[in-house]
Amino acid sequence: MFRIIRFGVMGHVKLLGTTGLGFIPIIIAAYISFSIADRPGLAPAFIVGLIAQQSGTGFIGGIIVGLLVGYLTKWLKKMPVPQKLSVVKSLILIPLISTAVVGLLYMYVIGIPLKGFTAGLTSWLKGMSTGTNSVMLAVIIGAMMAFDMGGPVNKVAYTFGIDCYAEGVYGPSTAMFLAIAIPPFGMFLATLLDKKLYSKEEVENGRTAAIMGIFGITEGTIPFALADPLRVIPSIMVGTAAACAVNAAFGVVQKTAMATLMALPFASNIWLYGLSIIIGAVVTALMVNFLKKVTHHQVEDAEE
Amino acid sequence: MTKIVAITACIAGIAHTYMAAANLKKYAKKEGDEIKVETQGAMGIENKLSSQDIEDADVVIFAVDTSVSGKERFVGKKVLKIGTSEVIKDGDSAIKKAEDLVNGKKQ
After folding, report:
1. For chain B, which domains are there?
2. How far apart are CA A211 and CA A143, in angstroms?
3. Active-site residue, selected from the candidate residues B9, B10, B37, B87
């Protein structure tokens, strides 16, 4: 059982992983601020972002810190100072004021309700990650992950899953990581089942997509979706949601941050987890091929 | 009259960036050239060159000791690349070199 070991090699591997994840709120804060205020926004946001991370307000804390530091710094940059003092302004005044103002504001004002909010959200999710609710949640996560294959909607679900993972709520994170490779596996299976429905390039692309899927990349499905969005996107959404729902109903969780197939050895029940992946791929493949057949979809380079 | 756009940037982004910018402006004015300078210093990008500025320019001066952000904006332009300290020591020859580049003279 890998997941309960806290010492030895696996414990150290886990330490590496949690250290990396722990950086996320800090990096989010720093680079949101950087994008708003340019270089002067970096240092203060790194400092206050670290405070936010340590106080346990996670991603939401990082985002809020980044926005506050960014806009305050941007405004401070406009502060008129004599030419001779402009160096003092960029080296001392701006970092000092930004860090002090947002840092103290965070510690005494924003941090407290935010901490309550994050704690509330976590306990609500923890509540939702058992019983029927967990299946519902998994369905939503699965459908969102598949909807735009790595785009903004996918990233909302992804961030949510990572957030849950960082909070130790493994139900939603399992669903999210499981969802990643279902669309490519599904489309690969679809091209295997009925080659006539796909162009040569698409059959070839199905293999590439499956390989990318193994390594946790959903984007290999995009060419299929671009060629035929109305049939492909609903199919991968339904298939991925099915995989997540079945897995949640089985109550299988995995406590790593690895995608679909790579996480298989770490699942609490390897067989049921594997079965969920297969169900997801099969549902996707059957649905997309069915839709293509019923609506007499013809591939452009098919010979009549 | 030559239309010049320039970018200045140094490692720390505190002194050289702005001194080089000031010197370029001073000597360009002396030569009767038109110049716009973008500084990429500790304050981030200031006086950002518009795409129109770059379009209209005859020559681009990169007075930088580090990398230029947004280098792709200058694709296809004649670029003179020198260090900031060169510009600060001898702004006159920096401007002259840029003019030579426009006129196609060998440096």
Report:
1. 3-103 (3.40.50.2300)
2. 22
3. B10
